[in-house]
Every structure is written in C-alpha cells, then in structure tokens.
Amino acid sequence: LLCSVGHSEEKFGFTYEEIIICLRLALLNEAKEVRAAGLRALRYLIRDSAILQKVLRLQVDYLIARCIDIQQSNEVERTQALRLVRKMITVNALLFPSSITNSLIAVGNDGLQERDRMVRACIAIVCELALKNPEVVAQRGGLSAILKSVIDCQLSRINEALITTILHLLNHPHTRQYIRCDVELEQILAPYTDSHYRHNPDTAEDQLKEDREARFFASKMAIVAAFRSWSGIINLCKSGNSGIQSLIGLLCIPNMEVRRGLLEVMYEIFRLPVPVVTQDFIEALLSVDPSRFQDSWRLSDGFVASEAKVILPHRARSRPDLMDNYLALVLSAFISSGLLEGLVEVITSSDDHISVRATILLGQLLHMANTILPHSHSHHLHCLPTLMNMAASFDISQEKRLRASAAVNYLKRFHEKKKRGPKPHSLYLDHIIRKAMVVHSRREQHHRVQKDVSIIKDTEEALLMNIRDSHILNHKQNLEWNWVLIATILKWPNVNLRNKDEQMHKFVRRLLYFFKPSSKLFASLDLEHNKARQLTVAGCQFIEFLLESDEDGQTYLEELVRDIEQWLSCSSGLKPDRSLQSNGLLTTLSQHYFLFLGTLSANPSGVKMLEKCNVFQCLLNLCSLKNQDTLLKLTVSTLDYSRDGLARVILSKILTASTDNCRLYSTKHLRVLLRANVEFFSNWGIELLVTQLHDRSKAVSMEALDILDEACEDKANLHALIQMKPALTHLGDKGVLLLLRFLSIPKGFSYLSQRGYVNRQLEKWQKEYNLKYVDLVEDQLNEALTTYRKPVDGDNYVRRSNQRLQRPNVYLPVHLYAQLVHDKTGCHLLEAQNVVPDLSYTVRSPTLDNWEGVKHLKAALWALGNIGSSNWGLNLLQEENVIPDIVALAHHCEVLSIRGTCLYVLGLISKTKQGCEVLKQQGWDAVRHSRRQPWPVVPDEVERQSPSELSSVPSSLSLNSESTGSRHNSESESTQPGFYILDDEKCDLLGLPEELPLYMRSKPQKDRGPFTLLPSGSSVRRRLLSTLTLPSKKLRGTGDPKAGKQGAPRRSRTITEPSDISPTERSLAPKHYLHRAGGCIS
Known about the structure:
4 strands, Leucine-rich Repeat Variant, mainly alpha, 59% helix, globular, two-stranded antiparallel ribbon, Pianissimo_N
C-alpha cells in the first residue's frame, strides 16, 4: 500500500497514529510471521523524524525491543526487527530510544555464550549508533560492550571496525568525554598485561590455552589498529603510566608466551615482515629478505613487473612519503619508552627462536631509526651499550654473555645484508638491470674485468688445461661437466677461434649442441633444477663469447639462433595449451631461450644476427596471434630497448594490438624499464605511455597514468611529456593532477597559461578541489594503514582485505599550489589572489564544532604546507607569520586528527633547508639527508650559519642536477622532508655548540654502517667525536690519495651505504605526543 499510494494521510484515509496503533497490535500477535510483517510495514512507514516521534510516543519501541529479545530460533522476526532499528538510526539517530539500545547491548554482551547468531549484527548496529548518537550508547554501557567484543573477535576486518569506533569517539572533544581512556581503551592490552587474564570466568580448564591464544590474537589486531590512528597513538603514548610503557615493560618479564606475542605486535606496528620460527638466524633472516621468491612473480602471474615493483626503488626524489612521517613518530615514542633496552633483555634471556626474532627486530628498528629519525635523536642509538657490556662482562651468567655476543655478530650480518641491498631473484630482472647500465659504466666495468682476468695466466696451456679439467671433451653427462670452469673459459680474455686448437672448436661444438633446442638437453631441464640458474648464465655467456669471436664464432652463433627461431615458430604455431605442454614453457628451461634472444638484442652484432635469422619477424608475427600471452610476456621482458630498432617496434605492437592482459602487462613493464633507468627512456618511453592513456581498457590507461606520474619525478621525462601536449582531462581527477605537474617548470606554466587553464584551476581549487584533496590524501593513508580498499570501477561497495601490505609508500598527491610556488610567476599569482591570507585566517579561526569545519581546516593546512614546500612559497608563509599557528595546532588542537595533519604539513615545510631553519626556531629538529642517502654518518651542514644567512642560500643537498626554475625554488635544491622532534633539551654533548660541523675521514675500506657497537661512557664518546672532527677546510684524510690534488673548495661528504629500505622523508614528532611517554628525544 505504501509503495503504490505513497506517503499521504489523505490517500490512506487514516492518520499515521491510527496506522501505527494497528501495526502495534500486529507486534503482539502470537504468530511470528505476523509480527515480522508488522515490523516490515513499520520500516516502510517511518520515512522522517515526525513519523518516528509518533512511533516512539505510542511506545512501540518496547515492542520492537521485545522482538529482538525473543527466542533465538525466531530469526525471521529478529532480522526484520534489526532492519527496522537501522532505519530508525538512519532517519534520526538522536531520537533513538534507550529501550532498544538496552536490548542490542544485551545481545552483544551475552550473545556469544548463548551462541546467538545475531550477536555481530547487534554489535554492528551499536557501533553505528555510537557514531551518530554516542550519548545514548555510553549511558547504557554500550562502549564497554564494544571493547569486550574487540577481544572476542579474531576477524581482522570486524576487529578493526570495532576498535576504530572507539578511536573515532576519542578524536573529538565533544565525544571524548564518554570514554575513560586510561581504563576503557587499555582493556585491549589486558590479555598481555594481566598474567591471570580470563575473558570469560566460566572457561573450562582444558580450553584455557586455546582461549588465551585467541585473546592474544584479537588483542594484537586491536593494538595494531589503535597505533594506526592519531587518537590511538596520542592516548596510548601519553605521559604517566601509558599503554606503550605497559607493553614495553612486559618484555622484561620472563614469560615466553607473552614475549612471543609482543614481538609479533611490534613487527605488525612497524610494518615489518615476521620471520619464520627457527633457531637459525640465517634462515630467519632469509625469510624476511625482500628478494625472496613470491608466488606473484611466476610467469603465469605478475612475472617481472611484479618483482621489479618490489625490488627496484620508486623514482621519487623529493616527494614526501607520508608513511615515513607516521613511522618516525611511532618509532620515536617506542624508543623513548625503552623498546631497544627491552629487546636486549629479550635477546639475552629468552629461548633461541624468540631471541632470533628479537635480534632481527632490533636490527630493523636501528636501521629504520638511522633512516627516518633526525641525527640528533638517532646517533646515540647504535652504540647499544647494554648489549656490548653484556657481551664483554663476566659478572653475568655465561648463557647471557654468549647470547649477547651472538646478537652482536648477528647484527653485523644483518647490517651487511642491508648494505648489499635487495638483489633480483629472477634472471629476467637481473638481465634488465645489467643491460640498462649506462654505456660508459658498462665499458669501464668491461675494461676492469679484462684487466683483472688478465692477471690469470693468459697462456694457451692454461686455457687448454681448463678445457680438459671441465670434462666437456671426454664426458657425455652434460650436468656433470664443471660449469664453473666452463664459465671461466667463456670469460677468458682475447680468445679467438681462428687458428685455435681443435680442442677449442670441439669445446664450442659440445656447448652448442647442449644449448640447441632441437637437442632437448638444456630445454627439457626443469626450472627448479639445482643447476638451472648456473646453466642459463653460462648460456648467456656463451652467446656473448660467440658474439666477440671471429667468423667461426658467427657461424656457430647463426646455427644456434636459427635453431631457436625454428623452435619459436613451432611454439607459436600450436594452440596455447598444446604449445605450453609440448614445450614446457611454464616449467622447463626452454623459457630461458628468450634470455638468449635478449642478450643478442643488447649487442649491435646480435641485432644483425636476429634480423638475419628472421627472429624479429617471427616475434612480430607472434604479436598478431591470439592466446599467446605467455610468449609475449617473455618477449617483452627480455628484449633490449636502449637502441632504436625492431625491438621497440615489437614492444609498441604488443602495447596496442594484443589481448587486454598482455597490454596491461607490457604497460607495467614500462615501469620496470623506467625504474631500471634504461637509457633515453624520455625519448621513447614517454611516447609509448601517452599512447596507452587512450587504451580501450580502463585498467591499462590508469596504469599508464600512474607510471607517468612516477616518471615525471625526473625533469627530462616531464619535459618530454609537455612536448607531446597530451590530453589528460578525460582521465578524471588523476589526469588533472598529472596535468598540474606541468606548472612546476616555466615551459609547462607558459603552455597552460596561454590557454587560461591556470586561472580556471585556481578558482576550482579554492571552491572544491582543496576539500577533495583532503579526501584523496586520507583515502591513500587509510588504504595503506588499514584493511580498507578503494572501490573498483565506480563500485560503491567498500572492499576490505585480510592481508595488510608490508610497508606501502604513500607519496603525497600533486597540489596546485605546490606546483605554482616552484616559480616566481606562480607565487605572484597566489599573492594576487590573496590565497595565503585567506588560508591563514582559516587556520587561526577554525570551526571545530562540526566535521565540515574540521575538513575545511585540514584543507587549509594541506594547502599551506604545499605552498611552504619551496623557498618562494615559504617566504609567503613567513610574511603572513602562519607557521607558529600551525605549530600551536600540532601541540594543542583538541581534535586529535588535526594534530596528525599538522605533523604531515610541517614535514612539507621542512622540504627546503630554509624551512628546516624556520622550524628549528620553533623548537623542532629535522632529518637533513635525502632519500638517496639511506646510510648517512653525519649531518650535511658544512659550517655554522645563522638563519638569516640560510634564508638566502639554497639547500646544499642537490637532488637533481637540473635547475628548471628559480635558484631558490628548484626542487633539485631542496632537502628531504624529514623527521622532526621537539628539541627542548639542547644538545650540549661535550660542551660543543649544537650546530658544530662534523666531518668524517674518507676511509673506503672501513665499514661505517649504523651498527657501530661501542661501550657507553663519556670518555669513549669524546674519543669517537675526536676521530670524527677535522678542520673545516680539510675534508679528506691524510691517507687519501686524492687529498691534495684539487684546491677547489669542497662540500662535506656524507659517507653512505646502499640500502634496500625505501628512501627516507622528513617527518615530525611533536612534544605533545611524546612528552615523558614518548619522551622528548635529544
């Protein structure tokens, strides 16, 4: 009736009160079907607050509560009742009656014991009501029910939703009053902190262990989720007996079960992979190696594109990574509360498998501290006096001393692994990286290898002796040949097949027969064979050996290439299933023939050979065949594109003519080539990516857009993109943001200004885009920190994943104002529009009573931070004197999420050295090295300068040799956004001035990594500093052979080591968060 007639009392012939009274009778009917129908009719009837008020005035809410509390088996009626309850919350939550609230909370509290299937639905409704009407929930004890359910729930998505409800209420002062932070929030720690904890008093003794493990797991998820939000961090790290101090204090209690659980919590909080449970340190270390094989790297899945995204670093040079800000804040709080000392205690007094895990965690945290904390707050961490003293002391038990000594050795191994950095797992990625080296580097390496090898006895006798010892001439079992010696022979310098002994020709013919596809020797071996990698590397060396040989070598090479071409033609001529089965492309070494072709394509002579044997033509024909995705993947992943030629033609054809999956993979491979720094990528790669922007598949076009966004971190690529003048607006907001990057250089600014685009965008940003920017940034942060996943293809359903990403990056999206302030013209434009004064007014007079006002304040803060990310923009902020107001908000704002936003914003202001000095005057300290220097030893300040001098001097740390804009504002002249911690206690170590420059003698052979392990004591520190400090005009040690060659002034050199951890950014940690609990680190 309601659906057909509509909501009109005249058409009904009855008033709403009369209808409600009739429906009320239905709720008292004996038949459950009638009661369910009455509830459903009420749900359709209630459409606004006026009708809801009439329902409540007639006390129907008590009947609804009765339906919820009725027997559990009556699910139809209870389901209708809960649907009606949700409709009431949607219409007007402030009118929600306490009678129904009591019923919902009762089911939520006791439903699990009674195996009530409606318990989760009731708790979900209580959470929804708590967000819209927290008062009624708090008065009825609903918040305690939610927290109790947190420890009951082992599903990460539900657990996170429950604890996030409480954290949301803690965020705003209006709702914070309903929660006793020191009592209620810290309930989530109880399974760890209470050694006699029982969630349910009536739990049977034989189920206690299983129940305790379940509570540990639920508590771990809740603690991690709490540390993913600003309200959780601030409340758990507050001064006094805080939650963080309780957790770290537990490490000193010799309870192995609790220690194991807490270590897992720490790994989760810091986004680190958890090692396998083992007593072998090396095995545990290998299990967390980023280079370890992952299933997504298989040929049938993401292949090289997936591997490269993990192994190769992002191209961003100066773009802030917000995850660094967040992790630096949390890390500083934990270190100040004694985490490192707690881990040392765990290492020296725990079982082997727990000790190994704690050692790896200690190494990871020390590395992280060295990367993202300011020098003044991390330099003292690496001495580890407690561990060293225990390793050297005979006053403690032998077992503890041996464990401490072993930990020191383990940390040294850990450092060596970090220093080496991640290595490619597959030969395909290794091939790309090696071939992508710049020509002069490759040439230098070639000459160096030749020189080194020539030290070996370069005689005919030695060569022939090696051939005999390799067993290749007299042994028919190919796998029993000495492949190490064979590789040595293939790299032998100055070998020429002409006039060589017959033994050398026989050696080559034997190898040729082994590697030919038609022989089915190499090709039939399994991919998992223990010599597979060695044999393939030898095959590539054999190709290079033949390429460098004379005419005889070319003859052998042509025979091999023609055989590969015939195999390739046969493979492509069959149906895909049959092809893969007959040739074993997915499981045998036959797929590595594409590496042979890639090796040939990287050499001019090899390219000619490929053309001569029609291999390129065969690959081109392959592009037009259907269902050949695997062959095309291998083709794209192995060919060399550094020279203009048929390889690029094949790539271009695959990008445009193949199946959707293949086009997507080949587009992703362009990111591999970008990150591998393939030569002249800007000349041809950008053009291919722009073509992909118009692909019929949205997935392909969005992938190309994302790669272009990363590519534009290099000025050469940005210039190439502007030169092409692509259409980007059809790609939505992301396309607009990429177009805005044009404004960062004069050429792009001029191009867009002539079309009136800049003024139109300024109007849009002032009206709506500044607010959209807040949503964009917070969506990215939520996706990185929680189980939330963005909807796909316009789907409104919020997808969640049980799998959290390990250490994702959240690079700050492009902002119009940040691009404009790269140039003086853009700054004048902002000045003319009075942008900074308007934003400053919002910061000084915020409206925090409603979420709309909070969002406007966040938008203003992000806008000011982006303006302050260059020296030109920073001058505008200083003229308005708004930076102290931002700092004040970071300290004292009652809305806790605003403090987090201020943290990120101050990190943006610290991008330049001038910004660092301005913030230092406000009592904040900074990381002053770039993300390309992950192993800095000393700060890069050359000499002490006053802030007034610094204001006119660009950063001494150049991130990009090109200067495309003003000297003051070039992105290449800015330092990295780094971690800030309030510097209340000034550094007066040894009575030296705080900014006294320190220089390191150049000692290439000396390992200067962050794990310098020294005993404590001021005398040792004095000796250490005396070795670090040299006269300000003498930057090299006397032992340096280059020490007197050049008289020109030099910058301070920062000794660095390569690393596999993603580059560091500047981040901030306010005193308000860390005072005592987090500590003011100095």
